[in-house]
Amino acid sequence: MIDFLRGQVAHLETEYVVLDVQGVGYQVFCPNPYAFAAKGQETVTIYTHHHVREDAILLFGFPTREEQRLFRKLIEVSGIGPRVALGILSGGSPDHVVAAIHQENIGFLTKLPGIGKKTAQRMILDLKDKLEGMGGPSLFDDPSEALPAAESAYPGWPEAREGLKALGYTDAELDKVWHRMKEDVAPDEAVDSVMKKALKLLYAG
């Protein structure tokens, strides 16, 4: 079992990062590969889940232990495979996902990529009592606060913006990149898609 990798980012794609670990390039699928773009040639640590199936051996990676742990809990739910779990983590922060499960907030969960009402109900049933120490029901008093704010005609941008700020980007940088990209963003575009577009521009400079 490969639990983590430490090395330098050698290549980025929309779905994965290639991490150079002492001359060996590991392909690691991530919720948001471009989150590692700002690291440059720094040594980074990616916490991984080593997924083995009959036709493939895959690595899924995360910047924190919390995301790694939540990913492993999510794939225990019937109907949620690694790809769907990755989409969940690209669409909502671990704290918000955990809080939504504790609060039985189906409205928030069904806005995550690949999650319908029945799968959201299974997530609540299977995980509500298994996420001790990961977020909690007090994260927001009103469950609707976890949903992306309806800002102008692009409801996906406010949540994407908060995620980018958490990565260290400034308001000035984000205002500039939004001005450059907003014409290419659909009003109903998913948060993870908006965030990836912004990160591509931020990475390009």
Give the topology, please.
Layout: E1 4-12, E2 16-21, E3 24-29, E4 44-53, E5 56-62, H1 65-74, H2 82-91, H3 94-102, H4 106-109, H5 117-127, H6 156-166, H7 171-181, H8 191-204
Antiparallel strand pairs: 1-2, 1-4, 2-3, 4-5
Helix pairs in contact: 6-8, 7-8
Helical run tally: 8
The main sheet comes to:
5 strands, antiparallel
* Helix coverage percent: 25-40%
Mean pLDDT over all positions: 83
The separation of the N and C termini measures 37 Å
In what order do the strands lie side by side in the largest sheet? 3-2-1-4-5
Give an overview in words.
Mean pLDDT is 83; it is low at 136-152. The longest helix has 14 residues, at 191-204. Helix content is 39%, strand content 19%. The protein has helices at 65-74, 82-91, 94-102, 106-109, 117-127, 156-166, 171-181, 191-204; strands at 4-12, 16-21, 24-29, 44-53, 56-62. α6 packs across α8. The protein has a five-stranded antiparallel β-sheet with strand order 3-2-1-4-5, covered by helices on one side.
In brief, what are we looking at here?
The protein has helices spanning 65-74, 82-91, 94-102, 106-109, 117-127, 156-166, 171-181, 191-204; strands at 4-12, 16-21, 24-29, 44-53, 56-62. It has 205 residues and is α+β, with helices and mostly antiparallel strands. A hairpin with a 2-residue loop joins strand 4 and strand 5 (56-62).
